[in-house]
Amino acid sequence: MSLDPATVRRIARLARIGIDESDVPALQGELNGILGWVEQLNEVDVEGVTPMVGTGHAALRTRPDVVTDGNCRDAVLSNAPDGVGPFYTVPKVVE
Amino acid sequence: MTYTIEGKTGAWEIVVGLEVHAQVISHSKLFSGASASYGGEPNTHVSLVDAGFPGMLPVLNQECVAQAIRTGLGLRARINLESRFDRKNYFYADLPTGYQISQFTHPIVGEGTVEIELSDGTVRHIGITRLHMEQDAGKSLHDQDPARSFIDLNRAGVALMEIVSEPDIRCPEEAGAYLRKLRQILRYLGTCDGNMEEGSMRADVNVSVRKAGEPFRTRCEIKNVNSIRYVMHAIEVEATRQIEVWEDGGEVDQETRLFDPARNETRSLRSKEDAHDYRYFPDPDLLPLVVEQAWVDELERGLPELPDDKRDRFVKEYGIPRYDASVLVAEQAIADYYEEVAKGRDARLAANWVTGDLFGALNRTGRTIADSPISAAALGGMLDLVSDKTINGKIAKEVFEDMLETGDSAAAIVDRKGLKQVTDTGAIDAAVADVMARNADKVEEYRGGKDRLFGFFVGQVMKAMAGKANPAMVNEALKKVL
Fold this sequence. Notes:
- By secondary structure, chain A is mostly helical.
- Chain A contains three helices and two strands, in the order ααβαβ.
- In chain A, about 10% of the residues are buried.
- By secondary structure, chain B is an alpha+beta fold.
- Helices cover about 40% and strands about 20% of the residues of chain B.
- The chains are: A mainly alpha, B alpha+beta.
- At the A-B interface, β1, α3 and β2 of A face β3, α1, β10 and β17 of B.
- β1 (about 60-65) of chain A pairs parallel with β3 of chain B.
- Chain A: GO terms for molecular function: asparaginyl-tRNA synthase (glutamine-hydrolyzing) activity; ATP binding; glutaminyl-tRNA synthase (glutamine-hydrolyzing) activity; transferase activity.
């Protein structure tokens, strides 16, 4: 599998990363390098092998339905660059 | 009969599938211990997990899983003992992590079915494709500031169930019936309050059109429609738009659209151009969810009687028509009220009073069954007076109105107003004789063959006795002398 320049630009847009047109060839080379490396896995015969979803055999942990958290607005908003009163704010997003 | 929309080139069928987002009733959120309740101060029902702080890890709420399984069972669906969580990636200001944890490839609930009934009595089965758990997003407030949107994350991370139907719906009425039935089931189960106005249940509507016998054509998705009436309108409006596009030689693009009820049109959401490229992948923070069949069985044993079962039981046990039974099981509280009235009494009479006079009274007074001005015991007490012939049906209406106004018991009202039915044959015979004497001309006409005057005599006698006479005895007495 190999990425063309258009796909590189599309991936960047989906990830909301602004790139210069001049960066595209270098990124294309790096991404294709990564894909090529991962593609080596295709050489392994996995016919009949159950997909592995984790290294542990532990079951997913769950918690009881109890309110134990929240009410920490100051901490929640501590990194907000432009908080107003009890809110985060962002540049206006309207459909 | 198939519902069609007439275009320039003939009749078109419509094909609809619904994706319903139902907010799970739980105390805390799907993956954090913050409160899931409504109405908190902005950004107070938020943990650092919900706010997407680095290093915070999700821990699944067991009760939300139970609620999803209960719902699956209520939809007569397959429960998948192993399911998984995936990340659905998109950027939006009220989604702090940049992804929603959802279930994409392995949902917790598989195929099921919902039975709907249309106004003409037709019964149809709408297939359920799947139900999966996912997180809700936060809320953006756009009207607080000219240049900025304000973000409240109280809803972020609250558990939702997305319930996806098969494209089995063929007309707006079926869509409405499906949503009402789904809401009824969720409310019976206590897994979602089904309140569309408050947004705890909302629908995405997939619509396409086709000529009879064709395979499916391209569909459009109308996002976030928040009332049953709007869903029905949106389907009609969107189908009409698509028919015009096809008939003008165009192609319908698969896209996301918004329904604008004020202008009665749907509009393309161009900003969602990439919206379907979510780059799902398994959430590395969460292992597969494995549930035991024994637990599913235990949850199943704890389910309440579901509306379809209750309706069928009412028909069988109380001998009431299926339509009345459907009306009575619309809400659990109504069904419970009815059963209390009907137990040990004339169940058909009870059904008539509950669906007729009581519903009318609730409508007029703007009350619900839960705060009904007349309790089930009080209405039952009144029906007892009808059954033992203390009062007749006509007087019962008067007593009912009095109960509504004063809250007194039927027996007390009958005493206070002296409404006890007259069964004294002497008093009835006297009234009959008096009416006949005053209407000698009508008696002549009746005897000359004008049979329908009989009703007139009954009315006159009842009037003379202030409505309190036993109607059967009046009929009897009149027949005898006439």
